[in-house]
Write a structure and sequence with these properties.
By secondary structure, the protein is mostly helical. Helix content is 51%, strand content 0%.
């Protein structure tokens, strides 16, 4: 890496402004077939149980780094 400092030109600043205003999102909507597959999926009860355990564990966390 170089330690040379440069000043951004107007073209660079305009590109940065445009990028800052860009919002994230899906690149496309799901197809009807993809929607049907997603709707047919059933949640895994083990995953749900694990998520609840981890939520409780995090809520009861004590020690350094814990926010009041």
């Amino acid at each position: 890496m170089t330690d040379d400092r440069t000043r951004p030109n107007e073209q660079t600043r305009e590109a940065e402004r445009a990028e800052a205003e860009t919002h994230s999102g899906a690149d496309r909507m799901p197809t009807p077939e993809e929607e049907q597959v997603a709707d047919a999926l059933k949640p895994d009860p083990e995953v749900s149980k694990h998520e609840k355990e981890m939520t409780e564990r995090g809520a009861k966390q004590k020690g350094e780094g814990r926010l009041p």
